[in-house]
Design brief:
Layout: E1 3-11, H1 15-24, E2 30-33, E3 50-51, H2 60-70, H3 77-85, H4 87-97, E4 113-114, E5 124-125, H5 131-144, E6 149-152, E7 155-162, H6 163-166, E8 176-183, E9 188-199, H7 220-228, E10 232-233, E11 238-245, H8 258-261, E12 265-267, H9 287-301, E13 306-309, H10 315-321, H11 323-331, E14 341-350, E15 353-355, E16 367-369, E17 374-375, H12 387-405, H13 430-448, H14 455-478, H15 483-504, E18 534-535
Parallel strand pairs: 1-2, 1-9, 2-6, 9-16, 15-17
Antiparallel strand pairs: 3-5, 4-5, 7-8, 8-9, 10-15, 10-18, 11-14, 12-13, 13-14
Amino acid sequence: MAIHRTDLLIVGSGLAGLALALKFSEFGRVTILTKELATDTNTSMAQGGIAAVMSSEDSFENHIRDTLSAGAGLCRLSTVQHIVEQAPDRIQDLLKWGVHFVLRTDDPSVVDLTREGGHGQRRILHFEDSTGAEIHRTLLRHVKNNPNIELLENHIGVDLLMSKQMDPRDMGPRTCRGIYALDKTSGEVHAWVAKATVLATGGAGKVYLYTSNWSGATGDGIAMAYRAGARVANMEFMQFHPTCLYHRESRNVLISEALRGEGGELIDHAGNAFMKKYHPMGSLAPRDVVARSIDAEMKKSAAACVFLDMTKLDPDYLRSRFPSIHAKCLEYGIDMTQQPIPVVPAAHYLCGGVLSDENGKTDLHGLWALGETACTGLHGANRLASNSLLEAMAMAHNASQDIRSRWNDLKMPEKDPDPWISPEQSDADEMVVIHHMWDEIRRLMWNYVGIVRSNKRLHRAQHRLKNILSEVKEYYSNFQVHSDIVELRNIAVVADLTVECALKRHESRGIHYNLDFPFADPEHEPPGAAQDTILGKEF
């Protein structure tokens, strides 16, 4: 087993990981491990944009209020204030790195700001309808050209490397020393040892059957951190994006919330707009409201989808403002300038994750978690649109400063980690069973732990998941390590944590809606008084 050493180890190549690497590279050596290509991230798929107060008609107070309102009383006020108030500075970081945003046609010296659901003002900076791709492409170019950053693709984390594993006599705090990672090209597991380890592995949308996420969004960092002893929180809050393209050949084409921000209207099969029945903001209501409303309309009419109508807008404007979405819809025979787009909700963004502070610091010494992997309290019970890219930038900045301030207390271990021991047995036929379990988990979560839940459904899911976890453990213990088994192990853990958190919350709040507890607990009001659902033990 090869042993590699670095100053800062980052697992994941999305915006949070790349931004942290660039900021920290002036201070020390950085290694980034990413499980497929560096471009395979949810960041690259983000369409809408990044939220920041950039207009004199807007204010930090407005952005904070909108975030708290969307978060349904579960946001951590200090975190919201800290991240919102540094947003303009993080936009300057992006501009300094060369990221392009669309400028106003009437004044090219000013960025064009759009509006999305839950926002009371136009505050979304964007690059057409592929903002995430523009940001990621720009930062990745800088990372690849930085001599102090090593980027290794096709390396998937298996488990965190803890101090007790390296020295059983270690009586100090529970400390992360790095990670065991599988080199998918060679099939070998290597040890990566670092003074500080950062999990920036993204979310867990692939735990569900229908999702807007990329295929590798399997909650790897959350599962690894939990197995190592870190606490996780609020896993029941998986945000379902209201509008993904409904087509038999597609399951993950996102139809950006920005379309509704520019005047798109949700309609039923008869062409009737229905959102005003559910919320005074209509189609611009917060995501949890819109997703539940669509779900209710579909169940009431037995329809397979609803529609997003953009036909009242100028066709040339639609083609220039949303070129990627327009082109993608055309691939499936849908001209959004002439006909409504069929849409359904899909798992989109996890508001829970590894419990951490606004700097990404976790319970475990030497371990940070950033972006969608972390639960900082920014999003509460429901993420406000376009706060995710902002969170990634802000947490990368915070973590860089925090790690540097603790640098003298972070020690490189003197002992080498134990060799990785894995069974040599490999059976290609058994991979069929692994893929079957993967599919079973995703269908189970979609049917029993979806937009609308009940205790009966949750208990059924929990019972089946306990059996699946036992079966997964057997495969992991008896067969040669393989990336499919690693990911299956992780989605099984994340699914089980999600159900456990959902059963602990005896109320409906934000994204989490339980038929047995249809209202928010009045004891958890006003905003900020709600309780987190935390799993794991504080040391």
